[in-house]
Amino acid sequence: MAVERSESREDYLESILMLKAEKGVVRSIDIAEHFDYSRPSISRAMSILRTAGLITMDNNGFIELTEEGMKEASAVYSRHKVLIRFLEKLGVNTDVAEEDACRIEHVLSEESMDRIREFVGEE
After folding, report:
1. Is the pLDDT confidence value at 5 over 80?
2. Which of 30, 75, 97, 112 could form a disulfide with 92 if both were Cys (CB 3.0 to 4.6 A apart)?
3. Is residue 44 scored above 70 in pLDDT?
4. Can you tell me the mean pLDDT for 31-46?
5. Is the pLDDT at 47 greater than 50, yes or no?
6. Which of 61-85 are b and which e, b meaning 16 or more Cβ less than 10 Å from the residue's Cβ?
7. Domains and their CATH numbers in the chain
8. Please, which contacts does 45-53 make with residues 24 or more away whose CB atoms are closer than 8 Å?
């Protein structure tokens, strides 16, 4: 899966951030397992992210977010968490809220996100 689309790029960056927090280190295989994608697909995606200056990869294959990559990943993850809380406040089951937040986080305008943040009490 290529990273040309903004949604894919955001998903990869967010997954690197979450996997790093969970495991301490991130390799391409971790991302492949997380998404259930092939290793060649992930390798290509990581190459695109590296070329864009969003990640670095050392000789051992460990992936780190650059400052710009961390900024983008953190913003997406923040949107994700706020949307989960919003959906749960509406009575949506946590598992469904998680899945829906993954889809919604990429398409909402900043204006809508700002109102949702206010609604859930995170300004």
Report:
1. no
2. 97
3. yes
4. 93
5. yes
6. eebebeeebbebbeebbebbebbbb
7. 6-71 (1.10.10.10), 77-120 (1.10.60.10)
8. 45/1, 45/2, 45/3, 45/8, 45/12, 46/12, 48/2, 48/3, 48/4, 48/9, 49/3, 49/9, 49/12, 49/13, 52/3, 52/9
